[in-house]
């Protein structure tokens, strides 16, 4: 009568494309992967947090060089949620694409997840950048562009994200060396 089985998708999903779609906008990587309900939930969360934190006006003022106004307009109580949502969206879309490809080939998905160090570092760096951006405004005029909560959040997010990725790689290598096999 009713076919309640989930429709099998035989289309290859590029983890890099899922990653880049999520970098573009929270939830877009999930939509790329065919996770429509989850993708729209993430988009709704992004829209809510973006609106309540006044992120877009801050971005606008940052690009016009008015860093004091960019600082003053942000609602930091809501703004500090954004990096977590952003990092999670990237991480989940990337790993889900990998799992979907394994399932498409009839293989058991890997137990390992990828880009965890990068995404955790991204979230930590973005939060530090958003929260401490005023230090550059008050103390280091050479880096005046980093006095924007937006620019400093992106800058520190990327730096700490790559540091987290390197730490994850190092930890994985140490695990391989310790056990004599890949961990």
Write structural notes for this entry.
Helix content is 71%, strand content 0%. The protein has 10 helices and no strands. The protein is flat and about 55 Å long.
List keywords for this structure.
single chain; 183 residues; mainly alpha; flat; disordered N terminus
Could you give the topology of this structure?
Blueprint: H1 15-24, H2 28-32, H3 36-53, H4 55-63, H5 67-73, H6 76-79, H7 82-104, H8 116-132, H9 134-139, H10 149-179
User: How would you spell out the order of helices and strands?
Assistant: HHHHHHHHHH
Average pLDDT metric: 88
Large-scale geometry: flat
Largest sheet: none
Count of β-strands: 0
Strand content: under 5%
Q: Compute the separation of the termini in Å.
A: 47 Å
Q: Number of helix segments?
A: 10
Over the alpha carbons, how many angstroms does the gyration radius reach? 19 Å
The proportion of residues forming helix, as a percent range, comes to over 70%
Counting helices, strands and paired strands, the structural category is mainly alpha
Low-pLDDT runs of 5+ residues are: 1-5
Task: Give a brief description.
This protein is mainly α and 183 residues long. 71% of the residues lie in helices and 0% in strands. The protein has 10 helices and no strands.
